[in-house]
Design a protein that fits this description.
The chain has 318 residues and is of the alpha/beta class. It has 14 helices and 10 strands. Helix 8 links the parallel strand 5 and strand 6.
């Protein structure tokens, strides 16, 4: 990479925002995929132990926040993992890790289900003698969880010869358009010209919260003015979106989570009409009839394929 000007030009050419590129430059990501230089890569062949364990086949570690909603987990996170597995088996083994320890603990206590956290999964990978690792998060954007994951992987740079960290869902302009296409196809039955379609994201205090605004802007630019984006914990707020929908004259609204899984946020923060602060209840209070679509993005085949494509980019960068 010959200087920042040439690099930023490459970022623009590949469809990355300046904010996204600045973060990638700071963390060593090129083209949206982080390849981590490791001490093992620098070691010469002569330094390798002749009695070293035979290398395990490469691993793709799919990292998700997780959910305790078993039905949703199987058809969202599981569907993404299966799509990746179907594309890359048998050359790569696909494994799972969750970042939410509370969910890991709940699954173990309630269901007897064991899921590794990221550190446990990485330690297991080291123990198994894996020397090539692709980590694909199911995060929507490069927020705090994504940067935390990148930091954790840096700590294993002297233990695993080759590590690549894949892009989150919303990274390039092409990603945004592919996500919009997937969502609009899925919501077509509700798109009758009289219904506002409202997507509920999580929201974050990190700079990546601006990605929700970017998505709204791209929806509007595509002529999809019936689409509105809200967040649970940041901006745009529920009140912001309910007000915008009312001002636009809609009397009905279809609500869908802008999240990989349809778990606690979808069932409670979005759809629980017994909670006056839920998204649905705020529409009812405004005289707008809500319909809640309890489906995670992971249930959409086109979304699963985007994650698999990001894995391909990581493998190409190794």
């Amino acid at each position: 990479m010959n200087g920042m000007n040439g690099a930023s030009g490459a970022a623009r050419a590949s469809g990355f925002s300046r904010r996204a590129f600045a973060w990638m430059a700071a963390t060593g990501i090129v083209g949206g995929t982080m390849t981590i230089a490791t001490a093992a890569q620098a070691a010469s062949a002569e330094e390798a132990s002749p009695t070293a364990q035979t290398a395990h086949r490469p691993v793709i570690l799919v990292v998700s926040f997780g959910t305790s909603y078993n039905d949703s987990r199987h058809i969202t996170i599981g569907a993404i993992e299966d799509t990746i597995r179907e594309r890359y088996y048998p050359d790569y083994e696909v494994r799972r890790a969750f970042t939410a320890q509370t969910i890991i603990d709940k699954l173990a206590e309630r269901d007897g289900v064991t899921v590794d956290n990221v550190e446990q999964a990485l330690d297991r990978i080291v123990e198994d003698g894996v020397d090539t690792l692709v980590v694909q998060p199911t995060h929507l954007m490069a927020g705090k969880e994504y940067t935390d994951l990148a930091s954790t992987l840096q700590g294993y740079s002297d233990k695993i010869a080759s590590i690549a960290l894949g892009q989150p869902l919303l990274t390039s302009d092409d990603d945004y358009e592919a996500v919009i296409s997937a969502i609009t196809d899925a919501m077509e039955p509700y798109d009758d010209g009289q219904t506002a379609i409202c997507l509920m994201g999580h929201g974050t205090e990190a700079d990546s919260n601006a990605d929700y605004t970017t998505l709204q802007e791209k929806l509007t630019a595509d002529g999809l003015t019936q689409y509105f984006v809200a967040t649970v914990e940041a901006t745009p707020t529920f009140d912001d979106v309910v007000s915008a929908v009312a001002q636009a004259g809609y009397k009905k609204a279809a609500l869908r989570p802008l999240m990989v899984v349809a778990g606690d946020h979808a069932n409670n923060d979005m759809a629980d009409t017994g909670d006056p602060d839920s998204f649905a209840s705020k529409f009812v209070a405004a005289g707008i009839e809500p319909t809640c679509v309890i489906e995670g993005l992971g249930q959409l085949v086109a979304i699963d394929q985007i994650y698999a494509d990001h894995v391909a980019a990581s493998i190409a960068a190794l």
